[in-house]
Amino acid sequence: MLTQFLANSVSLWGHYALLAAAFYFASVGCRHFNFATGLAFLAGPYIALQIQGIAGTWVALLVSLLLVSLIGYLYYEGSVAAYRRGNRPGQLLLISLAVLGISQNLFSALFGPSSRKLVFVAIGIDMTLFSQALLLLALSIVGVIDILWRRSLFGLSLQALNESRLNLRLRGFNVDAIERTAAILGFLLGGVAGILWGLDLRVRPAMGFEVCLIGVVTFIVGPILAEGPRGLILASLGIVLIRLPLIIAFEGDWDMASPLLLLVLASIVRSARTAFKERSVA
Amino acid sequence: MSRKILIVVACLALVTISIYLYLRNRDEASPQNSKEIAIGVVLPLSGSMAEYGENGRDGLILAKEQLAQQGVQVNLLTQDTKDAPEATVSAVRRLIDVEQVKYIIGGLTSGGVLAAAPYAQTKGVLFFSPAASAPGIPEIGDMIFRNWQSDTLLAEKFAEAAYQKLGLRTIAILHVSNEYGLTNAGTFAKSFKARGGNVSLMRAFPQGTSNFRDLVTTIKSQVGIDSLLLAGYPDEYRGLFDEIQRQGVRGIQILATDTFYTPSAPTDFGSAAEGVVCAVAAKPSDDYEPRQRFAVNYKKRFNKEPGLVSDTAYDALLLVAQAIRQTDGSPKAVSQYLLRIRDYQGAAGPTTFTDTGDITGGIALFRLSQGKFVPVGL
User: Fold this and answer.
1) Residues in chain A closer than 8 A to B46 (CB atoms)
2) 3-class DSSP state for residue B252?
3) Which helix (H) or strand (E) holds B77?
4) What do you get for the CA distance between the two ends of chain A, in Å?
5) Which alpha helices (H) appear in B70-96, and where do they start and end?
6) Contacts of B213 in chain A (CB under 8 A)
7) A·B CB contacts under 8 A
8) What is the pLDDT of residues B264-314, one digit of tens each?
9) How many Å separate Cα B255 from the centre of its chain?
10) A11: nearest CA partner in chain B
11) In terms of CA atoms, which chain A residue is nearest residue B177?
12) Sheet containing B126-129: which strands, arranged edge to edge?
């Protein structure tokens, strides 16, 4: 049965890694930690569910991802306008939290508070029963994102953006376009994460805030472990590895506690490493 | 300057809107004439318990309409309690302090009723729950009633039936981590063990969970179990049965508590729910006239079968209305009248309250078979 637990954890890792990438790109693009990515996570599956019955699964998925990208674009433009009016990142973070809170209530009012499942039947086979395929898809997407981050001009410019926005602008890069693309990519990944979650498990409107915890923790811990998406993949792995022995040995809601435990662990390791470095220098 | 004016105008607008909404609600709530009875209703109309809340609301609406035909006007002041005890407390406080109601019907979760009922008792307001099942609720005080059997009684009898009638010997239990789940799981386990059965595992899950993958894997890892008891709500059952089907859990008898007994079970919970046996408070047979009449009227009015809580909520309103009409209408007098009632012929069966305001009764087992609940003889 340990194999089954491992398989479950690996499957969860795929979902978490995708979520982490979504939050990371949406936050880098919008220049504040972006809770509104949770809205993309909800919008993806819920829009798909509404369209599926009318136009079929493929069209539903396509339309839902397009709409989620549009939400990302609109959110980005809104946050840029807010920056221009003098709002600081802290204020925008709170606004993103409000956007998510309102969206959750809206989804609950429109689609009901109960959990929903996306069903995707291809060639007469219910694909939702193959969670390993969904896991592979999720990890492949994050892998491609990692390659993009390291090899493409877009990825390299995002890395440079993390170091100095002004420097990048002085070098002639269109920083706004880079940030806009990152924000839209983040929302798109959020939508994909929601759809895969809806196919594999079930989605509820209340999950918007729950997935934010994964986003926050991986956003903080990821860069400590490694740069870019690789750090996010490792941080997500850290969460599921911490969760694994806990769910086997104890009962309780470890889905919420595991990310926080990773955060505490990372803080301790970081403090110890800093102290060790200072002692070495002395 | 203009910004300050804008802020002041916005604040004034918000205050004006709030006052308007308050007055409008009050107008709607205020009795149209002296004969109208204002009754507070607290039900979960959103959240994972919404299905039961809607069942209860429909039962109350049907009772209200039937009372209106008899010339008794009832004004139901409904508050949504979601599935959180704190929301039930806020709703009850609002009904008592703002709407100044003297009678409240509702409170479907035991946690919510345990948290809110003491306030109603302190304020001398009659609180009648058509579904809260935890032990100790009627004992809160003389103003607290319910017409739903205690979980303790139901779970004890269910364990007895599981051991003796169904021949089950080793069971694993998954339950929602609230008052309802804890009472059902704890009492069932105690009673099952007392009869010689073995409880190999008992695990709780938070209300609203949708990922049951690891819990079902844990169940699969249990060697030698012949049964599994589930105590949750429909939203959790959906996730659980999805996962049970996905992981191919077979060869064990799945049992479920009374929350499983819902008309949507056959379509909602999938093929993995086929063969599940659930225990509910014994209801009268189909030829029992008050129940038959209720079912026909309910279906005619709402175009669906009555669900869990519909009948008890319906009875609750008719009982309270009858008590109000037969007395001076003070909550104290209504309470005393209810305690004197013997074999009230309600939709949920004949009702007689114990001296604490509780009810007792037997259980009935149902097996979900080919999309229908089939009685299992005891």
Assistant:
1) 108, 113
2) coil
3) strand B74-80
4) 50
5) 85-93
6) 8, 11-12, 201
7) 62
8) 888 888 889 999 999 998 888 778 899 999 999 999 999 998 988 999 999
9) 19
10) B213
11) A252
12) B74-80, B37-43, B103-106, B126-129, B144-146
